[in-house]
Amino acid sequence: MTLLAVNETEPTYPHVGSLLADLIAKLDTLPRRETLSPLVKACDAAIEATLEILRERPVEPAPPTRSELASLRERLLTASPRDAVGVLRQLRGALGRFDASIG
Fold first, then answer.
1. What's the rounded Cα separation, in Å, for the pair 16 and 3?
2. Residue range 38-66: average pLDDT?
3. Burial class of residue 8, CB neighbours in 10 A (0-12, 13-18, 19+)
4. Is the pTM of this model over 0.85?
5. Where are the domains of the chain?
6. Distance separating alpha carbons of residues 44 and 88, to the nearest angstrom
7. How far apart are the first and last CA of the chain?
8. Under 8 Å between Cβ of 26 and 2
9. pLDDT band at 2 (very low <50, low <70, confident <90, very high)
């Protein structure tokens, strides 16, 4: 297992990526769930630590691009009624980001 120091102020994407690479490499070689458990817990802890760092930072969402809006429009026009709800929510979020950016 690769253990890298977790930086307290910067997201640790390389650390999370390294742990995930170790987990993926061992999925086919280790027969028991118990053997993978410490690695899964380390991945989870690294992800949570990274998310905590990111939660503390104010982030202004990027406005949607023309292609994002066009893609959501196409998805909406071809969506089943069940899937349309999710697409409409994504559109609402994209339009909210757009409105905030011109605000």
1. 10
2. 84
3. exposed
4. no
5. 13-55, 66-102
6. 31
7. 48
8. no
9. very low
Return the H-helix or E-strand segment holding 40.
helix 33-55
Both tokens of 51, joined, read 């998310």
- For the segment 53-101, what is each residue's pLDDT rounded down to a tens digit? 878 777 677 888 889 999 999 999 999 999 999 999 999 999 988 888 8
Burial class for 18, CB neighbours closer than 10 Å (0-12, 13-18, 19+): middle
Q: Which residues contact residue 80 at a Cβ distance below 8 angstroms, ignoring those fewer than 6 apart?
A: none
- Residue 36 identity (one-letter amino acid): L
Phi, psi of 96 (to 5 degrees): -65, -40
Q: How many other CB atoms are there within 10 angstroms of residue 87's CB atom? A: 19
